[in-house]
Amino acid sequence: MMVTDVVTIDGSATLMEALELMLSRKVKSAVVPPRHDHDAYAIVTFTDIARRVLAEDEQISMLNVFDVMSRPAYSAEGQWDIRYAASMMIHLGVSRLIVTENAKLTGIVSLSDLVRSVSGLTKSK
User: Fold this and answer.
1) Structural contact between residues 3 and 51, judged by C-beta atoms closer than 8 angstroms
2) Domains along the chain?
């Protein structure tokens, strides 16, 4: 149920570049990899962008991913039970978790993915 073809983007990319990438890949988020061993993964979502650009009336052309990304990104280990991951997302008020194995990015899972998996429905393209 997790997506293994994770869209990633550098934190220094412009917000317009991030939006173009997410729209072209038909996803609502992109993972920002750590810059060094002591850094954490981050995530930028449509919601992050809406909060900053629409709600705070910022100029999208003046912002980089770093300005709006959520860091550190919440994560789950790949072997976790889906109920635990879903409970964590609901408790934290987030709609997606990055999935890691030994601190390496292996995927991303969303509440929508989890609901589809228990319903037996597949993602429509």
Assistant:
1) no
2) 15-119 (3.10.580.10)
Residue 5, phi-psi category: left (phi > 0), alpha (psi -120 to 50), beta (remainder): beta
- Separation of CA 22 from chain center: 11
Distance CA 22, CA 61 (A): 16
* Token pair listed for 94: 């987030």
Interatomic CA distance for residues 22 and 44, integer angstroms: 10
Q: For 62, what's the count of Cα atoms within 13 Å in the CB-facing half-sphere?
A: 5
pTM to 2 decimals? 0.86
> Is residue 42 within a helix (H) or strand (E), and if so which, with residue range?
strand 42-45
- Alpha carbon distance 14, 62 (integer Å): 8
Spatial distance between the Cα atoms of 49 and 22, rounded to a whole number of angstroms: 12
pLDDT-derived band at 123, boundaries 50, 70, 90:
low
Beta bridge partners of 42: 32
Structure tokens at 92: 């934290």
